[in-house]
Automatic annotation (TrEMBL):
Name of the protein described by the UniProt record: histidine kinase
Pfam families, per database record: HATPase_c (PF02518), HisKA_3 (PF07730)
Species of provenance: Sunxiuqinia dokdonensis
Recorded GO MF terms: ATP binding; phosphorelay sensor kinase activity; protein dimerization activity
Transmembrane residue ranges: 30-49, 69-89
Record-linked PROSITE patterns: HIS_KIN
Span of domain Histidine kinase: 120-316
This protein's GO CC annotations: membrane
Length: 316
């Protein structure tokens, strides 16, 4: 049994040594891996010494000291190799940091491209369709209603009203795509101005509290927080049927703290996250923006118990 065990032990150690040596190139000849591989080779050789004593009266090497010195050398190689292996972990950490950095850059590029597309579309609407509608309105306004029949007069009046509504809708769409009020007046005023048309036609009461007043932050933070809040309001109106929405935006020690709460239907958070959240809610987009801002979030919701999300975003 001892002979069989020694044979298997020797074969396993030889296999481990050969496999370790084959990986040296993949480690780019890392010192720690080379030392550990040498240690494994010497362990296999030492096992060969022990194995030979079971079959021959004399060992392959007469000097008992050789076996002992091999053991000492193995210990030294493994010890130094383990010390140097820290470099491998440092390299892995560096690679992980590069991966996260590349992910953030890719995410930032995607969101920036999306915002640029929104701005371009808004500009085309405002500069292209806007003047056309204004010209139609001017032409209709130049018509003298008293010089036409009552039927035609009503047609002209309805046309003027429809043109006014089209111009108003165009301004609202343009502002949602590229919020000029955000650039001119800041985050809080932009959220207030956007919440009104989103909640128009509903009985939802909205409360916005903030201690940042008209303070300005870098555009990347403002535009992403603005988009997050707009998406949350839209989710509440579309999916939750709430009666009340509260938004708290506070600055606390170089951190923007945002708490959004509604008293709507809520949802099962565990199943929702497993199912990529409720389709159409756009929470993936919200999470991406939070990640881009290096923020943290916490969600508290359950069926028929409303929805609360708290964000902590550092001010850089």
């Amino acid at each position: 049994m001892l002979k069989v065990a020694l044979v298997l032990s020797m074969l396993f150690q030889l296999g481990a040594a050969v496999y370790a040596i084959s990986l040296i190139r993949r480690t780019r000849y890392n010192v720690s891996w080379i030392l550990i591989s040498l240690g494994l080779v010497l362990m296999a050789v030492r096992r060969l010494f022990d194995f030979s004593s079971l079959f021959w009266d004399s060992k392959l090497f007469q000097q008992e000291e050789i076996n002992s010195w091999v053991g000492v050398l193995i210990s030294v190689l493994i010890f130094i190799g383990v010390i140097f292996i820290k470099k491998i972990f440092n390299l892995q950490d560096h690679i992980e940091r590069l991966r996260l950095d590349n992910e953030n850059k890719t995410l930032a590029a995607v969101i920036e491209a999306e915002d640029k597309a929104r701005q371009s579309f808004a500009r085309e609407l405002h500069d292209g369709l806007g003047p056309v509608l204004s010209s139609i309105k001017m032409s209709l306004s130049a018509i003298d209603p008293s010089a036409m029949e009552q039927k035609n007069r009503r047609i002209i009046e309805r046309s003027c009203l429809a043109t006014d509504e089209a111009i108003t809708s165009l301004k609202e769409i343009s502002n949602l795509l590229s919020p000029h009020i955000l650039e001119n007046y800041g985050l809080i005023e932009a959220i207030r101005a956007t919440a009104d048309p989103l909640l128009e036609g509903t009985q939802i009461q909205v409360e916005i509290n903030s201690n940042i007043s008209d303070r300005r932050f870098h555009r990347n933070l403002e535009i992403n927080v603005y988009r997050i809040v707009c998406e949350l309001i839209n989710n509440s109106v579309t999916h939750a049927d709430p009666g009340y929405i509260r938004i708290d935006i506070m600055e606390e020690q170089h951190v923007i703290s945002l708490t959004y709460k509604d008293d709507g239907s809520g949802f099962d958070l565990d199943n929702g996250l497993q199912d990529k959240v409720i389709p159409g809610m756009g929470l993936d987009n919200i999470f991406s923006r939070i990640k881009l801002l290096k923020g943290q979030y916490q969600i508290d919701t359950s069926p028929d118990s409303g929805f609360i999300i708290t964000l902590k975003i550092p001010i850089e």
